[in-house]
Amino acid sequence: MTKPKVLLLGEVTQASEAWSSLSTIATIITPTSKDRASFLSETRSGAFDGCIASYRTFPSFSMTGPLDSDLISALPSSLTFLAHCGAGYDQIDVAACASRDPPLRVSNVPAAVDDSTADTAAFLILGALRNFNTSMLAARKGEWRGRPEPKLGHDPQGKVLGILGMGGIGRNLARKMRAFGMEVVYHNRNRLPKEEEGGADWVSFEELLGKSDVLSLNLPLNKHTRHIISTAEFEKMKRGVVIVNTARGPVMDEAALVEALKSGKVYSAGLDVYEEEPKIHPGLVENPNVVLLPHMGTWSVETLKKMEEVAIANVRSAVEKGKLETPVPEHKDL
Ligand SMILES: O=CC(=O)O
């Protein structure tokens, strides 16, 4: 009997056991393309015909570009399941996937990323609050703390951490930062049930902006959240606020952040994500008060392995049962 075909977009590097076991029930098809134009020709030439499910990674974007309606309509109609190996799925137009005939059902990896992304946010909060960036760079250049010495940093104890987006990552971060003595407030469109708040107080969006000493962005990117933080929002914040973003670059207007840093409204920032990755706004690169990471939120052996296992389990379930295990919320009833 011929095995069902699965299209691999990207690489599986950690979950080798789960992947080899999937290979026993499915034939894995790997594209030869390196860019979007050749990927579109490859799929239009019929190279992926018969594939029923696809496993994709965040970095496979460099080969396919966005999974928008052009690309979705070029994929073979046999392909009806897409398992994304990541929590955020803003690279995929899930509405276009749902309205295709037949629909392309999409899954993501929700909880597996919570610890490592929250750890990354915690690192950036401490680094930005304590203003460690200048002296870390100076030490490597043999300049001790740097000349002139950096401004004294601030302790987290007794400061208000405002979390915008209290999903799994936000709740995990709240728990960790309370151990550093921070008081936590959050804003979410819907207030969480008391038992899930973990002692954090729900506040309105305006109150969150006005109350936070540190504001952490932990919300997904979609058309409602693009540039949710821009000039008008910075104006409502306390002078000297610290901004941390481990969600997606475009939830914040980067040019507005650069201005707010220059004016001193924002004391420092800790960033893992950028509006035009892999480019980083020059105004952020040259500002010594900004701690920069190049999208390392889930960059750990343990987390990547867990993420890959969940995405592989979705492909397996698609092949064996004709359904995904962790569909994205928009596709729950598809
Ligand atoms: O950025 C990482 C993810 O969305 O999983």
Automatic annotation (TrEMBL):
InterPro entries (UniProt xref): D-isomer_2-hydroxyacid_DH (IPR050223), D-isomer_2_OHA_DH_cat_dom (IPR006139), D-isomer_DH_CS (IPR029753), D-isomer_DH_CS1 (IPR029752), D-isomer_DH_NAD-bd (IPR006140), NAD(P)-bd_dom_sf (IPR036291)
Gene Ontology terms: cellular component: cytosol
GO MF annotation terms: glyoxylate reductase (NADPH) activity; hydroxypyruvate reductase [NAD(P)H] activity; NAD binding
Pfam families assigned: 2-Hacid_dh, 2-Hacid_dh_C
D-isomer specific 2-hydroxyacid dehydrogenase catalytic domain location: 28-328
Key words of the record: NAD, Oxidoreductase
Transmembrane segments: none
Signal peptide annotation: none
CDD domains assigned: Mand_dh_like
D-isomer specific 2-hydroxyacid dehydrogenase NAD-binding domain residues: 124-297
Similarity comment: family membership: Belongs to the D-isomer specific 2-hydroxyacid dehydrogenase family.
Protein known as: Glyoxylate reductase
Species of provenance: Myriangium duriaei CBS 260.36
